[in-house]
Amino acid sequence: MRKKATKKTIKKAAKKTNSAKASGRKSKTSHKPKVRSAKTATSWEPRRRHFVHDGLKMHYWEWGDPQEETYVFVHGVRDQGRSWDHFLHALLDRGVPIKHAVALDLRGHGDSEWPTTSRGYQHEDFLTDLAGLLKHLDKGPLTIIGHSLGGSMCLLYAGTFPDRVKRMVLLESLGPFARADDEVPVIMAERLKGRDYIEIPFPHETLEAAAKAIQKTFPLIPDRAALHMARHGTNIKGGRYRWKHDPILRYRTTTAMSEGQIEAFIRRLKCPILFVYGTESDFMKSVRGHRAQLFPNAQIVPIEGAGHHIPHEKPEELADVVVPFLLQG
To answer: The domain spanning residue 90 has which CATH number?
Structure first.
């Protein structure tokens, strides 16, 4: 038989319940800011992601909420996705409302797989990588930002699918190198013969030595950026630091596109375009420099004192130029 509650018992129970409720309210109030802060910090930590495309397991880095508008970053040759870190944070520090960003590792770079043949590195192949990523993301018109080789792929993609790109930032890139008619037979012969020997870069004893190797080729890259590139661009094998990228990428691509074909892609562009170059790179004096005048809807801005690797050399100054373009809507 259930015991009948007395008034004293009821008062005690009510007091205990009210105390628990008050305690719960107090606990909830005191912990809520910490939970919100932790969630915000965690959501912007870079996360590894993969997709399979063209027979390769491709890797990319992701920041933020995939449900939000996406910004896509594509690196240059022998680089990798985490090299965008400093520039990306500079954009955020200046108020660009980027809530979702992805940075692709092109085939043979970073943590993406290498093709089984050395002939898998044509511009058409790299373009397939970018197209595969955007198909995988399955989002609306996107903002795409590319440096060097990555910029060429952004240009070719936007020229192929003009309605799929919202706006585009090209850094030291106006499309791939063109090939003269007489070069094409030689390129085809090189492609069909392949290479009997590929020089593999000497491994480095320390991460700092790997960073110094980057700076030997590109002296305008500061210590902090070079060390960051080395940290994310190498693996430790046999106690030494070895570059993640396929060593064959040190040789020229055998893609054969004419100047007229590349300019046909440029004429198809519809989105707003920002082209940025470094005053110390001589890019505008190169055989591709004249293309800058062909771009519709383009702003052309130099970065004083920057060389070819603007996102690594001067991420803050680059952000100052790119932010107004991105905030235009």
So the answer is: 3.40.50.1820
